[in-house]
Amino acid sequence: MIFQEFKISDFLEELSSKSPAPGGGTASALMGALGVSLLCMVCNLTIGKEKFKEKEPMVKEILEKAKVLLEDFKDLMDEDTEAFKKVSEALKMPKSTDEDKKRRNEALQQALKEAAETPLKIMEKVKEASKLLKNALSNTNPSTVTDLGVSALALKSSLLGAWLNVKINLKSIDDEKFNIDLQKKMDEVLTVEKDLNTIFEEIKSLLN
């Protein structure tokens, strides 16, 4: 499936069906896409206006980087679902003999690693997006500040949703070194939640 080609109603219907994929990981990538889409909109509503002329070069740079991230998030929606499907396929492999069980376990462990790595990529993209959001806050059209607020919330949901999906997959992976390494990377990226909280609180204060 290529979810970025779906109509919104069709994607929501697929997401709400009894099929386990797409699920929370794909939804997390979508939340990231929504967050950077709003960031793009804010940039577009700033560029070309005389009062923001001095800041236009910076805003254009933010916009171009946000557009790249948008494509990354859209691709990760599909990647997450495909990773889950590989886990499902491995679980369906025969386990009648010891050799069958060995092949099944090897395939399952590899699939679980991929399923854990994909949401980590989502988290890393959120970290990149948060830096752009922070720069945009003081350099874009102030009338769009609430859109930046929603962007911050969407990115936070993306971050935490992806974190949940990394954690659940790590619980089933036997490779201790892999788990330790991925956990370390995840913990480092998760610190961006504080940045998003700070951005949102700053936006709230602007509205008081």
Question: How does this model look, in words?
Answer:
This protein is an all-alpha fold and 208 residues long. The chain has one domain (21-206): Four Helix Bundle (Hemerythrin (Met), subunit A) (Up-down Bundle), CATH 1.20.120.680. Helix content is 78%, strand content 0%. The longest helix has 40 residues, at 98-137. The chain is elongated, with a radius of gyration of 20 Å. The chain starts with 7 loop residues before the first helix and ends with a helix.
Specify the structural class: mainly alpha
Radius of gyration: 20 Å
Stretches where pLDDT is under 50 for at least 5 consecutive residues are none
Mean pLDDT: 94
First-to-last CA distance:
45 Å
Percentage of residues assigned to helices: over 70%
CATH class: Mainly Alpha
Q: Remind me, CATH topology?
A: Four Helix Bundle (Hemerythrin (Met), subunit A)
Query: What overall geometry do the principal axes of the alpha carbons give?
Result: elongated
CATH homologous superfamily - what is it?
A: Formiminotetrahydrofolate cyclodeaminase monomer, up-and-down helical bundle
Number of domains: 1
Taken in chain order, the helices and strands follow as: HHHHHHH
Largest sheet: none
